[in-house]
Amino acid sequence: MMVDAVIAAMAVSGHENVPVIVTETGWPSNGNNEAETVANRNYAEMYLKGLVMHLRSGMGTPLRKEGVAGAYIYQLFDDFDPKKNGYSNASRSMHGGQNWGIMYNNMTMKYKIDFSHSERVLRNHKELVEMVLGLLLLVTGVLLLL
């Protein structure tokens, strides 16, 4: 619904063909008080798995059938400050002490989510590699054979 609201507003201002990229989407894995019962690891994992599945499907919304151009998950790691043996004051004040990271600070995954094997991602990755190699050829005049 929110994506369609943005698309509708863009169409009114004459920008209906601009790609939409969703930034800072996520779900907290825990909160700072008992009232935040929905801020838990199970809901965070369900949300992220659903997001990845939706993006892989290529299905869009009623106003944007092809879907969004991409999404950035908030955030990679929790805002942990090892010097203070806790979470940073900035994180506490901005997010109420919630943990939004999809990985622990030791770089292990919090959830079992497969971010790979997406045809859309692989296609875009291939296009990026081809573009970079083309730029290298243009700039250096040297053809790199892989």
Summarize the structure.
This protein is mostly helical. Helices cover 39% and strands 9% of the residues.
Describe, in plain words, how this protein is organized in 3D.
A two-stranded parallel ribbon has the order 1-2. β3 and β4 form a beta hairpin. It is 39% helix and 9% strand. The protein has 146 residues and is mainly α. The longest helix is centred in the last third of the chain and has 22 residues. The N and C termini lie far apart (45 Å). The chain folds into 2 domains: 113 residues, no CATH class; 31 residues. Keywords: Glycosidase, Hydrolase, Membrane, Transmembrane, Transmembrane helix. This is Glycosyl hydrolase superfamily protein. Pfam families: Glyco_hydro_17 (PF00332).
Which terms would index this structure?
146 residues, mainly alpha, 2 domains, two-stranded parallel ribbon, two-stranded antiparallel sheet, 4 helices, 4 strands, Glycosyl hydrolase superfamily protein, Glyco_hydro_17
List how many beta strands DSSP finds.
4
Q: Radius of gyration over alpha carbons?
A: 20 Å
The dominant shape is extended
Reading the helices and strands in chain order gives HEHEEEHH
Strand content: 5-15%
Number of domains: 2
Q: How many distinct helices? A: 4
Give a short account of the largest sheet.
Answer: 2 strands, parallel
Stretches where pLDDT is under 50 for at least 5 consecutive residues are 89-93
Distance between the termini: 45 Å
Please state the structural category: mainly alpha
Average pLDDT reading: 77
